[in-house]
Fold these 2 entries.
Entry 1:
Amino acid sequence: MLRAAITSVGRYLPERVMTNADLEKIVNTNDEWIKSRTGIEERRVVEPGTPTSELCLRAARQCLELRGVSPDEVELIIVATITPDMTFPATACILQDKLKAHRAWGFDISAACSGFVYALTMGAQFVQTGAHRKVLVLGADVMTAILDYQDRTTCVLFGDGAGAVLLEPSPDDNGIIDFAHEVDGSGACYLNMPAGGSLRPASHETVDRREHFVRQEGAHVFKYAVRKFVEASLRLLERNGLRPEQLDLFVAHQANIRIIDAARDRLGLPDSKVVKNIQRTGNTTAATIPLALATALDEKRLKKGDLTLLTSVGAGFTVGTVLLRWSGVNWS
Ligand SMILES: CC(C)(COP(=O)(O)OP(=O)(O)OC[C@H]1O[C@@H](n2cnc3c(N)ncnc32)[C@H](O)[C@@H]1OP(=O)(O)O)[C@@H](O)C(=O)NCCC(=O)NCCS
């Protein structure tokens, strides 16, 4: 079977920076609390009214340009997001038009913070079967569109951003090796946006009750995330006859620096093998893993052949892990 490889990476972060000091003016919080509990110092935020498809467009363009691939060559677009431009049509369709990727079909997937890892796995199947040779996979979210700036327990945690990767058949042994995903739907009550779907359609009442925003029980999500980062990572490694110390890079979903550090310690990894950019971006939901890959490339920490583990936990609950050997990409 063919192996699918990430052959390019693109990213887009909005220019506007929202610091913890900016949040102090909006809710009853402070820089020290946010930094010590989450690691976050600032996050990027869009100008109000900027849709997710615009962030996707910029990340996708960078990804394709770096590889010298024209939008016309893209065969499939998968967008992972929980903040689509609209409930329908899919943001992938809006992006296909904006990007002028005339030959591509596409769809969105909703798996919250595991969205990118799931989308990557799905895209890889089309490459591995030989059905497609160029698949664009994006993780993108405009979290500021669904944050309640009266709720200090959630609004300080998130930011906006988009990441894109191109999947192509690998010319060698590098590329995506294996994945292990899980869902525990009983966790839906701990992290969700209550209204706006078919269960609670938008009404004056849902707006008055502020139900169109992210709600979460942070402490429960925290414990689940630490446990699952470790369990899922070990399961995937063991299945492939590998031990954590053989990893070159651990790229975890950026939700809280304490979650990442706790998982790092339990896996017995040194900090030098762990990517962190949450300090500057906050939790960008589906975008964190491709943005973290971009950070690793900035820091020259990803070399061809590097054994890399991507791990995520998100609303659902969703758990995702992908094991790959890095293929080498153009990066400036
Ligand atoms: C949200 C999170 C940072 C809270 O950290 P915590 O150590 O669990 O803190 P707690 O929720 O126990 O709150 C401690 C106190 O800080 C207060 N607090 C909460 N948010 C605050 C803020 N932004 N500023 C100041 N104080 C705050 C709480 O009200 C609470 O006060 P109390 O003790 O008087 O009731 C943490 O639970 C977390 O990161 N959870 C996972 C979130 C996540 O990853 N979500 C996305 C999933 S992928």
Entry 2:
Amino acid sequence: MDLIALPAFTDNYIWMLHDGTDAVVVDPGDAAPVAAALDERRLALAAILVTHHHGDHVGGVYALRPRLKGAVYGPRRERIPEPFVPLADGDVVELLGHRFEVIDVPGHTAGHIAYFDAGRSGAPLLFCGDTLFSGGCGRLFEGTAEQMHGSLSRLAALPGETRVCCAHEYTLSNLKFARAVEPGNAALARYQAECESLRTAGRATLPSRVAVEREVNPFLRCEVPAVVEAARAQGATGTAGADVLAALRRWKNEFR
Ligand SMILES: [Zn+2]
Ligand SMILES: [Zn+2]
């Protein structure tokens, strides 16, 4: 089974999973890179998975529909180009021998979902859209800090070896912020150096791993004393995880 990150727009990745014959794509915001990848590898498009309704995640669905053999799957509580199979927490989608479990992860959008494959053979796999990024998280457009904190906590509890397939290459700017939050985090400094060399070589920093994110991502570390302290210095109103996350998110929005 091959996992490929197709670059789209300026910093999106459209994830493609294929077995040499059939492919599944996640969040095709643009049809062109998907069509090119299918043609180049002579693959059929078996299904489309959508995590949330934003245009850079669903913009290519309409144009891909004629070559789609199966269905479009998406969050039940959001407006996705019809027709689609509506999914919510606990639902399961079986595709190309993978068993994807749906996890509700509200916060970035109200109905955002993630797809988790526990990996019967290979390493577990997570498609998390714009909820969890490497070193960061999505902006709170439609949800609260409490919701995002709950969503990220669920993702952080997945097996450490889970490959984290995020929808944007935001890693370096996230890590710059993470260093400001936790200047004393040695694992973070090492990871930043690794990601910088990947980007210099023109390579993606993704997929990440859940175990790595637990060590470097401040938004998954809202209970770590150094992170709580940094958030308090930025005006966090309490020490609960959601208070810390709210302060980090506000701080990050203005961080350059
Ligand atoms: Zn989005
Ligand atoms: Zn996006």
